[in-house]
Amino acid sequence: MKKIIFTAVLAATVSFATAQETNEVLTNSRGTAILPTAGSWGFGIDATPFLRYAGGLIGGNAAVTPTFGQDFGFHGRYFLTDNTALRFGVNLGFTSDRDVTFVPEAGRPADSDAEVRNVVRTNSSTIILTAGLERRIGGQTRLQGFYGAQAEFGFLTDNNIRWTYGNDLPSGLGSSRPLRNNNGLTFAIGAGVFAGVEYFIAPRISLGGQVGWGIGWAMQGRGSTETEIRNISGEVEIVTVDGNNRSTEFYVGHAPHSGITLTFHF
């Protein structure tokens, strides 16, 4: 039994090595090359919205135009050789919520309908950049495996709040109200390994996905608050107070699945 297993493994290894070294180019029925080669660029985006849309058409359900969430992410490759590529990626995420409350305008008669607006704005943002090296396996077939390593760093802000008011601060001594609540900026770095598969559905167009494992470190700086108060002299002043905490986090484990990506090669 051991001899049979050894023979099978040896045969598979020789077959794989031969496939990697062959000069044969995979083409479609029209003679167009299917796989990217040295000097090619690849550009990929999240394919999930398009697949959901196509599924709705095929299933006979009402199809909704593809939409994307708050994060915009893409990845790219530059092929140094037919089987080795530099990788880079960008993930941008922005949210901005605006909550408006209508209140009576101060100084008007009680039966007046005049109103002003109090506005609360909440903002968050994410900027993550990645770079790495990828090695591809699979020979001249539409199904390609890949593995490699990459590093990443990013900047994040979360739930920064700003208040604006339609009326002046009440005249009473000690009156106060918040103006800003800024959480500290988070800086993160990490490194890890990944592996995945990619299937070329057409010449130089592929669907794929990957999983990964890595380590990461993040530090969130001190935040601050701004408050509008009426002091003992009756004047309005803005008081800024720095936060008391600064936090760090260390992570080791599996990275989230990338989802299904659609990649075009040129």
Number of helices: 2
How would you classify the helix and strand content by structural class? Answer: mainly beta
* Overall radius of gyration: 28 Å
Shape: elongated
Largest sheet features: 8 strands, antiparallel, barrel
What is the N-to-C order of secondary-structure elements (H for helix, E for strand)? HEHEEEEEEEEEEE
Mean pLDDT across the residues is 83
- pLDDT < 50 runs, ≥5 residues: 1-23, 62-71
How many beta-strand elements?
A: 12
Please report the distance between the alpha carbons of the first and last residues. Answer: 48 Å
Proportion in β-strands: over 45%
What's the helical proportion of residues?
A: 10-25%
- Placed side by side, the strands forming the largest sheet appear as 1-2-3-4-5-7-8-12
Explain what this protein looks like in three dimensions.
The chain contains two helices and twelve strands; from the N terminus they run αβαβββββββββββ. The relative contact order is 0.16. It has an eight-stranded antiparallel beta barrel with strand order 1-2-3-4-5-7-8-12. It starts with a helix and ends with a strand. The protein is mainly β and 266 residues long. Strand 4 and strand 5 form a beta hairpin. Mean pLDDT is 83; it is low at 1-23 and 62-71.
Key attributes of the depicted protein:
single chain, 266 residues, mainly beta, 8-stranded antiparallel β-barrel, 12 strands, disordered N terminus
In brief:
Residues 1-23 and 62-71 have low confidence and may be disordered.
Topology:
Elements: H1 2-21, E1 41-46, H2 48-58, E2 71-79, E3 84-104, E4 115-137, E5 143-164, E6 176-182, E7 186-202, E8 205-220, E9 224-230, E10 236-242, E11 247-255, E12 261-265
Antiparallel strand pairs: 1-2, 1-12, 2-3, 3-4, 4-5, 5-6, 5-7, 6-9, 7-8, 8-11, 8-12, 9-10
